[in-house]
């Protein structure tokens, strides 16, 4: 069996649980304590990067798409490692110019996300990044946006996956998903 990665153990140790936030019955997994140990943020980005490069050693990444808001904490750093563009997938009404939109539901609500058309080009290879996959509604909406824009999604990456909510199954068929830390709920 592969030796556990001490960086992943350290990341997991810093994620904090808040029962009944933002609604009764939701166990909120908070990634912000990672930022009280700045080297852990770099560990997250390096683990994402190394995982991708070991699986797709000869694939050029053109853009890293980050999901509003907590995906923005990691996606620009990851984009810089790939010498790729960072592209924001923002909540509705925040981006100027021509945008494409997609609505969705998530573990505790519903929303709509958008990408600026001019930020990407047909056929670009992209990674989509967020902090957490719960029901998969948010990541699925980002994948649908990427597909509308004819982007080539190589992998979706999250710091955390709540595996008991079956979010991966909600993603479009054939999407490769990677998470660093898993919880059932
Ligand atoms: O898999 P899902 O059920 O869709 O849930 C996951 C999403 O929920 C959270 O974002 P939230 O919408 O709370 O926004 P925030 O990042 O602005 O806090 C989280 O950061 C993911 O984006
Ligand atoms: N349980 C959870 N913790 C943190 N962010 C979330 N987004 C959706 N579900 C979540």
From TrEMBL:
- Tell me what reaction this enzyme catalyses: AMP + diphosphate = 5-phospho-alpha-D-ribose 1-diphosphate + adenine
Which Enzyme Commission numbers does its entry carry? 2.4.2.7
Q: What are the protein's GO molecular function terms?
A: adenine binding; adenine phosphoribosyltransferase activity; AMP binding
Question: What does the entry list under GO cellular component?
Answer: cytoplasm
Q: Which residues form the Phosphoribosyltransferase domain?
A: 57-161
**Which pathway, metabolic or otherwise, does it act in?**
Purine metabolism; AMP biosynthesis via salvage pathway; AMP from adenine: step 1/1
List UniProt keywords, sorted A-Z: Cytoplasm, Glycosyltransferase, Purine salvage, Transferase
GO BP terms: namely: adenine salvage; AMP salvage; purine ribonucleoside salvage
What the record says about family reads: Belongs to the purine/pyrimidine phosphoribosyltransferase family.
Q: Which HAMAP family match?
A: Aden_phosphoribosyltr (MF_00004)
Job of this protein: Catalyzes a salvage reaction resulting in the formation of AMP, that is energically less costly than de novo synthesis.
* NCBIfam families the record matches: apt (TIGR01090), PRK02304.1-3 (NF002634), PRK02304.1-5 (NF002636)
Name under which the protein is recorded:
Adenine phosphoribosyltransferase
